[in-house]
Amino acid sequence: MCGLPPWPYPKLCAHRGAGKLAPENTLAAFRLGYAHGYRMAETDVKLSADGVAFLLHDATLERTTNASGRADALTWRELAQLDAGSWHSPPYAGEGLPTLVALARWSRANDVTMNLEIKPTPGRERETGAAVALDAKASWAGAGVQPLLSSFSEAALDAARDVAPELPRAYLTEQLPDDWRERVMRLGCIALDVKHTLLTRERVDEFHAAGMRVATWTVNEPASVADFLAWGVDTVISDAVDVISPQRNTGSRTNP
Ligand code: G3P
Ligand code: MG
């Protein structure tokens, strides 16, 4: 049994800020997650045409903004003009796309730790991994808790490690490869962040026995959250921030 790495993160993490209750990955969403008691949030980070790290899930703009086409075809100056709130509901009209730097400022001011999912647009994996890690390193310099960097892209995680080896990394996956041990070791990850349907109590034990922390997404049923926490999952990521209360479910904000 290996020792487990430090994990200064809460047991519950708000997916994309506040799940579906507010426009995902906007500052309004992070504020709403905070209002529901969440002190960790997950977000998706990619690069503009001119290399600015900003928050957006999709590779294209049409689902969550008033523009269309590839998100990385526009410069940050152009992206900053977009409305990323009207698609959701009228109270959020005019909500903007945040840069990673703006999110960091809010996160540090409010003591909310972040799970930064590096979500490169296709073909920009290493560039995005490196840029997000460098921004995170600068923006959270001196912070008590560093953000967790996670990605489905091994190239992005590898590039992040090259430029900021000290930032914690999580191997994000929806299919567990047979050689997961080799992969997480090679990338220097401290955690596996796996789709919840892959988890069993035995697998949680197996990951812990390998010296890995365990996170899982996206869990929206209170009974399932309770089960995963009882199995020893270190952090559960949820959309249901209005239903699943950090205080009620964990009694404390962070893991021992
Ligand atoms: O980071 C966990 C989760 O967000 C991964 O899936 O598609 O919601 O970014 P997705
Ligand atoms: Mg994500």
Topology, element by element:
Elements (H helix, E strand, L loop, with lengths): L11 E3 L12 H9 L4 E8 L5 E3 L20 H4 L20 H11 L2 E6 L6 H15 L8 E4 L2 H10 L5 E5 L6 H7 L4 E5 L5 H9 L3 E5 L4 H10 L3 E4 L7 H5 L6
Parallel strand pairs: 1-9, 2-4, 4-5, 5-6, 6-7, 7-8, 8-9
Antiparallel strand pairs: 2-3
Helix pairs in contact: 3-4, 4-5
This protein binds SN-glycerol-3-phosphate and magnesium ion.
The site of SN-glycerol-3-phosphate (G3P) has 9 residues, from strand 2.
Characterise this structure:
The protein is α/β, with parallel strands linked by helices. It has one domain: Phosphatidylinositol (PI) phosphodiesterase (TIM Barrel, Alpha-Beta Barrel). The protein has 9 helices and 9 strands. A 9-stranded mixed sheet has the order 1-9-8-7-6-5-4-2-3. Strand 4, helix 4 and strand 5 form a beta-alpha-beta unit. The longest helix has 15 residues. Magnesium ion binds next to strand 2.
Alpha-carbon Rg, integer: 17 Å
Structural class: alpha/beta
Number of helices: 9
- What is the CATH third-level topology name? TIM Barrel
Q: Return the CATH architecture.
A: Alpha-Beta Barrel
Compact summary:
This protein is α/β, with parallel strands linked by helices and 256 residues long. The chain contains 9 helices and 9 strands.
Fill in the keyword field for this structure:
TIM Barrel; nine-stranded mixed β-sheet; binds SN-glycerol-3-phosphate; binds magnesium ion; 31% helix; alpha/beta; 256 residues
